[in-house]
Amino acid sequence: MMPKITCIVDNTARRGSPFWGEHGLSFHIETDQGCALLDTGRSEAVFLHNLGLLGKHPRDVDALILSHAHYDHTGAVDVVLSLYPGLPLFASPEILRPRFSRREGKYKFIGLSLSREELDQRADLHLSATPMEVLPGVWTTGEISQRPEPQGRSEHHFVPDGDGWRPDPYQDDISVVVETEKGLIVVCGCCHAGLLNTLAHVARTFHRPIVAILGGTHLLDAEEAYLHHVANVLRDTYGAPDLYLNHCTGERAYAILANALGDQVHPCPAGTAWPF
Ligand SMILES: [Fe+2]
Ligand SMILES: [Fe+2]
């Protein structure tokens, strides 16, 4: 069976569908070996409503993967672990680092709301900076340690550093790789490590062609010239994989990629299922 990947939460919902939209991200990944969630979106109301539209309850999944700590990806972890105590949970160990957003000089906590102790008690916790096989054929990328290309940064994101602050290094940022007969599907959370850095890491680690990329690519602040570079690399290095872009991709990035790559580029609001 070809894996079936459904966007459960995105900033927007598919037109005419019963899915709800909310700033955040979650994907449901189903293979013939089981199913996994990537992220939980922001609120339990939207997450549970949209997951329920698939006829699913959190107890029906075999694993939860967290792409990174931000609240718009981990906001419903608490309720998921209440509904499914002991759920296998996969993430980078760096997900435990507190993270903040600075606006007008004020720092607001935007990280994971659960501590290491709570996660140890309530989940079957798997934290590793190296790739982990979550289900047969479904992997975490592990840490994207080589980042020669620009990262998917926000000028607002900071972590505490001694008595002060420093820009968030986004070491927690991972994506998911799903193996299919045709090649690899890369499912991204926010891609703070940078889309091209993530793809190069996947190519080095998994040695198979990338046939599709889904999720948030954090190109919303990228310069126009860089977006053309991304389009060229996607076409020339990766053979123009299918792109299902959402969340933090940005409208300008979407337009430039769609103009350059045509029918390969699709939106991916909540309720989008791949393959159609
Ligand atoms: Fe995000
Ligand atoms: Fe994020």
> What overall geometry do the principal axes of the alpha carbons give?
globular
Q: Determine and state the CATH class.
A: Alpha Beta
Order of helix and strand elements from N to C terminus: EEEHEHHEEEHEEEEEEEHEHEHEE
pLDDT averaged residue by residue = 97
CA-based gyration radius? 17 Å
Can you describe this structure?
There is one protein chain. This protein has 276 residues and is α/β, with parallel strands linked by helices. It has a single domain (4-274), classed as Metallo-beta-lactamase, Chain A (4-Layer Sandwich). The protein has helices at 44-52, 71-74, 77-83, 116-122, 195-206, 224-236, 251-261; strands at 4-9, 26-31, 34-38, 63-65, 87-91, 100-103, 106-109, 123-127, 133-135, 138-140, 157-161, 164-167, 176-179, 184-188, 210-216, 242-246, 265-267, 273-274. The strands form three sheets. Strands 8-5-4-3-2-1-18 form a seven-stranded mixed β-sheet. A seven-stranded mixed β-sheet has the order 9-10-13-14-15-16-17. Strands 7-6-11-12 form a four-stranded antiparallel β-sheet, with no helix packed on it. Helix 6 (224-236) packs across helix 7 (251-261). The longest helix is centred in the C-terminal third of the chain and has 13 residues, at 224-236. The mean pLDDT is 97. It binds fe (ii) ion (2 copies). The site of one fe (ii) ion (FE2) has 8 residues, from helix 2.
List the helices and strands and how they pair.
Blueprint: E1 4-9, E2 26-31, E3 34-38, H1 44-52, E4 63-65, H2 71-74, H3 77-83, E5 87-91, E6 100-103, E7 106-109, H4 116-122, E8 123-127, E9 133-135, E10 138-140, E11 157-161, E12 164-167, E13 176-179, E14 184-188, H5 195-206, E15 210-216, H6 224-236, E16 242-246, H7 251-261, E17 265-267, E18 273-274
Parallel strand pairs: 3-4, 4-5, 5-8, 14-15, 15-16, 16-17
Antiparallel strand pairs: 1-2, 1-18, 2-3, 6-7, 6-11, 9-10, 10-13, 11-12, 13-14
Helix pairs in contact: 6-7
This protein binds fe (ii) ion (FE2) (2 copies).
